[in-house]
């Protein structure tokens, strides 16, 4: 479903930049890449709002065609909001029919919650509404709201030689990848126990991480540079891609930035290793983690030094046909108990999200489909508003409804951490009843 259809529903997830206040959508899993079965419905939905939206497609030079998409300024937000007001009822009904109702908050279950390797055990007292501010739930919410959120942005400089100044409708997988990579950098620089505190000045290391993901070519891990690094894997402005292509693109971008980084900033980088199977992660095949290959990746990255560098392991998977095979779900849940867990790049078909936690059969996620104005973050400016990079509202999706094409992420700080990961992965494979997510060699 076109993400533009979701832009007019109010949200409490995060605030806009200080330059412009607007409501952001709370609806979960908005599709960038509609299936063929939904195309007729999507056409109606698109026609209702896209013609009035400056973000639904980039401004392009006039063509020789009779119908010329010309960039103008008369399509103001007044016109857009008026159109959205008339269409909002139909859009909401369409979203509920295709995606299911929006699911937010934490259920009343007393089952433990795992959030990127950290366990939150909820007592029966704290699971009641009266005790919602209980110690464990409060700790979980603080942890969740400290995770870095990357969403659609509008108003950034054109990507490469194109005229795209927004990634609305097509950039959700790229934004999900940015979230996972940013979280790895956060673990590296500030540790897993770091929490964002609004009452204190922003940490310079935290701001430096956000600056790396700014929407400009000057930022190392911007959507601009990711697309450039991933051209060989099909990345292009305006095109939707899958988890495998994004994983390979991050590998390429990290290698490129490592070559460009001077010694002063060397400690900020990390090696990236893709774990894939016989089909190289595109059409399935059991992924094999070859310890010898990982060692070679680390040694090459560290240029022969004896010290084992931090490493990001990315595992693209295909776990079924139309949806995840239920036999894999227990193993997917178990990966969140790993201290090295960086979650899952995945969502519903054509609608990528960043899944960061689990409780029973539900996955908590950060949604990149909110549309926000570009924010410029500089590490020198500790007063910058970074609220649009965080979400205070946990949302969840049934794990059984996930698209089978997804990717796992794991961050290993050093050799001991990697060895611990290997022990856990080996045990998980042994307990998987023949449906292991990956095997070790």
From TrEMBL:
* Pfam family name, one: Peptidase_C54
Please classify the protein's predominant subcellular localization into one broad category.
Answer: cytoplasm
BP terms from Gene Ontology: aggrephagy; autophagosome assembly; mitophagy; piecemeal microautophagy of the nucleus; protein processing; protein transport
- Residue stretches in coiled coil: none
Query: Where does this protein have compositionally biased stretches of type Low complexity?
Result: 25-34
Gene Ontology terms: cellular component: cytoplasm
**Cross-referenced InterPro entries:** Peptidase_C54, Peptidase_C54_cat
Q: Does the keyword Amino-acid biosynthesis apply?
A: no
Q: Identify the enzyme class.
A: hydrolase
Query: Where is this chain's protein located in or outside the cell?
Result: Cytoplasm
The Swiss-Prot or TrEMBL record annotates one GO molecular function as: cysteine-type endopeptidase activity
**Function in brief:** Cysteine protease that plays a key role in autophagy by mediating both proteolytic activation and delipidation of ATG8 family proteins.
What family name appears in the similarity comment? Belongs to the peptidase C54 family.
Name it: Cysteine protease
